[in-house]
Write a structure and sequence with these properties.
Residues 568-616 are annotated as: Disordered. This is Major facilitator superfamily (MFS) profile domain-containing protein. One of its GO terms (molecular function) is transmembrane transporter activity. InterPro entries: MFS_dom (IPR020846), MFS_sugar_transport-like (IPR005828), MFS_trans_sf (IPR036259), Sugar_transporter_CS (IPR005829). It is a single chain. By secondary structure, the chain is mostly helical. The protein has two domains: 23-86 and 179-550, Up-down Bundle (Growth Hormone, Chain: A), CATH 1.20.1250.20; 91-158, no CATH class. Helices cover 63% and strands 2% of the residues. The protein has 23 helices and four strands. The strands form two sheets. The protein has a two-stranded antiparallel ribbon with strand order 1-4. A two-stranded antiparallel sheet has the order 2-3. A hairpin with a 5-residue loop joins β2 (125-127) and β3. α7 packs parallel to α9 and α19 packs antiparallel against α20 (497-520). It is globular, with a radius of gyration of 28 Å. 45% of the residues are buried.
Amino acid sequence: MDRHAKPMRGGCAANVLHERELRSEIVWTVISNHTETATSWKSKMKFDEFLFSNLGEIGKYQKIQFFLVCLPSIIVSMHALSWTLAAVPVPYRCALPSETHDSPYYSNDSRLKLTECKGWDGVPVSMNASGSPKVHCYYEQQCEIGGETCSEHVFDRSRIVYSAMDRWDLVCARGSNRAHVQLFYYVGQMIGSVVFGMLGDRIGRKKVLILAISTQVTAGLLSVVAPTWWSFGFLRTFLGLSHPGIFVTAVVIGTELVGPKYRKLASVITGILFAVGQIILGIEGMFITHYQILQSVITLSGLIFLTYWWVIPESARWLVTQRRYEEADKVLRHAAKVNGVTLPEKWWEQLDSENAEMKGKEVKKYKAWDLLKTPVLRKRALIAFFLWPCVSMVYYGMALKPNVLGGDMYINFVFAALVEIPALVLVFLGLDRIGRRFVTSLGYFLAGACLLVNYFMGDNVPLAVSIIQMMISRGAITGTYAAMYTYTPELFPTVIRNTAMGLCSMIARVGAISATYLSLWIAELPNGKVYMIIPFAVMAITAAVLTLFALPETMGTALPETIAQVEGEEEPLPQELQPLRPKTTTEEDESNLKSGETEHTNNTQTQKISAIDEND
């Protein structure tokens, strides 16, 4: 979504946000459980062992809960990119002296010399019997150029019944206001990432999810009747605020009961649902061409998720961290019943006693500036701080203006969302086969190359060719976004991984905001397409080169735990402080082999001792 969030496909796509750019943070946050003490590492590790040995890594209960909590991401995706269709550009012209804002467009009247941002001064107007304007031009350039900027416009409503662009006259000098409205959304998304993230750790995942859904529904309904563009934008701030509150919290609830090896699959599923939201939005936009009705349909569709207060339980993992064991026990026993298994009585007592043993042992806390103190980590951080705005800019730019490469806006919007699904599946399959670095670099390169090829082909590109180019570039950048969520966390050590991902997510908003102004404002100006495509293409290709030649491959390598390990020094954390992470197949085999050897040795020693006792 920007896409997850896609956009925050989606980030978007929005964000798309937040929007997609937060999914990796979710995975590693779930694993670390937002703690930095040895106490939490120890108890969390034992809780995972207890949980997955009893419930299984992905039983029937986990599947149902994960599917339910991920469904709201469809509505998040629709709200993230709804402004693209609510303020869809429509043909317009300056109003004649005798006309009003609601006058017919008359675009087929050959006697009417149409201009857009220049006035009709000096042109006498009379009305004939049929009511059509009868314009007499003494000099042709007076009709085409005029002298002053016109104060009112007439819009073509033959296809789009009522656009927000039409209602608030968001053209000419006021054209930048279209970008300002989407900016409000991204500002809200940035605030929501911090606010709801903190609240989720303090008051619980479920309460935050319901609070965010309520905020989304309220702001969505009020935006339907917003009287001005800035009040509409202000309300979109709250829609953006709810984005991470719904998307991130829902995924956290779902993944906190899923085993480690299924968490990457969970990330892909949320991305697919984010794309589904865009597909639904595009189809609705084809048939609902009144922006207020479209906004109402999107918002009312989200009302059903308020029932989650009675359907979705609180996260058992969060309850355990709060030592609310009886409540966690109720949740887990219901899960065990659905999965057809049983739980031991008072399972939490062992966790609590182990907590007491580990009290007082603290792990050093690292700050953001520690990313820049050592050479290898500094290099990785600076490159990541460039890659994330790049992927965010290209993704949201193409999501907000799907017809940038030509073709029909609505058809491109739907096809662009459709292509995200196979792109995500291919990335999921390729990451563990051809490597994170190559997949990420290839995605950047394909997106940038398609944009450049389209630019050099000119404006007379066949519709089929433009759609194919759009699908390749959109699929490539979507796949890159997903790959970045897996690749980036593996570049940083555990002790500062969440901090690094948080900074990458924050800096990615710069790309989303830049994309907003380039796609919703600059691209609408004369020759504006150049100022959108060239920056996107150059940055994407630069990112491809940096990824391929300046970053290491992380596939099949152990995750670094400390900064010293990243710098090539052998200073691993003591075993009891090692964070829990999914084991690879090789690691599991080695662990089983060692376990078997140890068991064999112990049995041999026991037999020897028994023999000695018998001889005595």
